[in-house]
Amino acid sequence: MWNAAARQSGAEVTAENVSWNGEVAAGASVSFGFTGGWSGRNTAPAAFASGGETCTTGG
Fold first, then answer.
1. For 15, which of 4, 20, 37, 50 could close a Cys bridge (C-beta 3.0–4.6 Å)?
2. Could you give the CA distance from residue 12 to residue 7 in angstroms, rounded to a whole number?
3. Average pLDDT over the chain, rounded to whole?
4. 5-23: per-residue pLDDT in tens?
């Protein structure tokens, strides 16, 4: 993960700001990224959250 700090609780992973990007000026932006992998089944989630908002899948 870059430009963020990961925090995990069970299956939930949260990306949080790091010390140098905790305040974002009006009109500015911040981005982060990660590389993931898995093994075994890759079942699509029934729902997830982005920016604190609950999202659902089309399935």
1. 4
2. 8
3. 85
4. 998 888 888 899 999 888 8
**Rounded to the nearest 5°, which phi and psi values hold at 17?**
-60, 155
Residue entry with tokens 């093994």: 39
Q: Residue 3 above 90 pLDDT?
A: yes
Owner of token pair 């609950």: 54
Q: Alpha-carbon distance 8 to 32, whole Å?
A: 16
Question: What is the DSSP track for the chain?
Answer: -BSSEEEEETTEEEEE--GGGS---TT-----B------S--PPPSEEEETTEEEE---
Number of domains in the chain: 1
Answer yes or no: pTM beyond 0.85.
Answer: no
The Cα 4–Cα 32 span in angstroms is 6
